[in-house]
Amino acid sequence: xxxxxxxxxxxxxxxxxxxxxxxxxxxxxxxxxxxxxxxxxxxxxxxxxxxxxxxxxxxxxxxxxxxxxxxxxxxxxxxxxxxxxxxxxxxxxxxxxxxxxxxxxxxxxxxxxxxxxxxxxxxxxxxxxxxxxxxxxxxxxxxxxxxxxxxxxxxxxxxxxxxxxxxxxxxxxxxxxxxxxxxxxxxxxxxxxxxxxx
Length: 198
What we know:
Elements: H1 2-25, E1 29-33, E2 38-40, E3 45-50, E4 55-62, E5 70-77, E6 80-85, E7 92-101, E8 107-116, H2 126-137, H3 154-197
Parallel strand pairs: 2-8
Antiparallel strand pairs: 1-3, 3-6, 4-7, 5-6, 7-8
């Protein structure tokens, strides 16, 4: 009778403790960076945190072109597994696939999907665009005074004045000559008249 009671207590204790020990033995993923279905612009590493320290971690980062962007081997830091990533990563959908050995000796696998988005390109302001285009669009004006010829009427005006002054002198000489001829004619006529009367 005592043996049966002792065996029953042992079985009861084993049934009570077994689920807890089994749950503690199976290590699970608690969090990740990036998170599941997250959207990021850039990435240099992925971090997986488990409920316990795991062994023999293996991590790959598959991109939209079916290329593995994981760089080197995964490192353990307590309950965390850190995997470096070679970048820059092209935009698209990615999957972090991991395989670890749990503390109970059983291998476990899992996946964490995320998306890399293209960085936004800022649109330049209109004023900045106009300022950038103005030096090449409008060259410096050429000074007008350097290529402007002298006034056209300056030289002819002095020539006209010279012509007027020269013409006035010629007219005066002509008038004097006519006067001299007229006087000579009068003198000649005066001298001839007394001769005829004699």
